[in-house]
């Protein structure tokens, strides 16, 4: 058993490296600038391009999760890396609305196979040697290594853009670390854990939906992630335009500003395990709420010119750090809560259901913010979105807190569903 655990530890360390390579996203500060430049700064049209990504994700997310549960995590990850990388490279070669939309469609197919699958692979790998209790600590390290990889990539990307004055190179050159991540994923070992399989892919999806619906805590956490993910993503989509105005075309500085943001996210991710032990699940959700919604009041005040230029600059950068702290803790916290309540045979499917609803709400709300930004002001659009989302999020927080004191809802697994 000790030798088996040592082997699992080696596989976990390999997964850390995989995440760092996948997260070496040279394009992270510049991809929307490349899009805005080619679409002549039309925020609304840019959001329509992005909506293509989310609409395709809607179609792909749940079937991809079911495929990962039914046919293996490793296969799903390999498919995801190939399509994810192809979409990013096509995006870097695009110059028109139609090609950008095509690139986002391919990109979304890859994302659908990767979202949730990595978490399911990691949890089952630990479960293989009965160490699933270590998942919060391990996933927090995954977050730390991922964001450190992105921080280094952002700084490198800034130097590339400074030397070449070409945003698109950061997207095209991402193929290099992505190829290395594919080669590493090829060496992964499929976790050997008891996994009840449904008789068909459709039955697999149906079982995952029953499990989600049958556990109130799962539903509440998914709704929470949907609301928080919506406002943090829309803020991230428009962030490069804001930061570009701050640095005034100094792309080396822009790369290092983003690197600082991602270092903050890495530090937050590393602290998830002790914070989760200290504050519990509902306490961590409350912390995420406080980090996400109040800063939008500052964003609105900056857009309304209520501060001097110098103070607005300082507050603007500090406010953005708050969102990266949320990014650092969101995935480890949410997946820790969900994985504890899901059987192995449905793990990727239920996580994909969460992704499905997140993409659905983004696809609906993002163009509205883009329209408000084009017609009125970006700060107005972002503040309106945050205020609207904050009200149901408060309800979810209190409902989840109350549910912790009640008996856990029964999880309806595949085996149980067959008996009905």
Could you characterize what this model shows?
By secondary structure, the chain is mostly helical. The protein has a single domain (2-189, 201-418), classed as MFS general substrate transporter like domains (Growth Hormone, Chain: A). It has 18 helices and no strands. Helix 7 crosses helix 13 (272-292). The radius of gyration is 21 Å and the shape is globular. The protein starts with a helix and ends with a helix. The model is unreliable at 407-420 (pLDDT under 50).
Shape: globular
CATH topology: Growth Hormone, Chain: A
CATH class: Mainly Alpha
Largest sheet: none
Question: Keyphrases for this structure?
Answer:
420 residues, mainly alpha, Growth Hormone, Chain: A, globular
Give a summary of the structure in a few sentences.
The protein is an all-alpha fold and 420 residues long.
Give the SSE map.
Layout lengths: L1 H21 L8 H8 L4 H29 L1 H21 L3 H18 L2 H11 L7 H30 L3 H5 L2 H11 L15 H14 L1 H32 L3 H20 L1 H21 L2 H9 L5 H31 L7 H29 L2 H27 L9 H5 L2
Helix pairs in contact: 1-7, 1-9, 2-11, 3-4, 3-5, 3-10, 3-16, 4-5, 4-6, 4-9, 7-12, 7-13, 7-15, 10-16, 11-13, 11-15, 11-16, 11-17, 12-15, 13-15, 13-17, 14-15, 14-17, 16-17
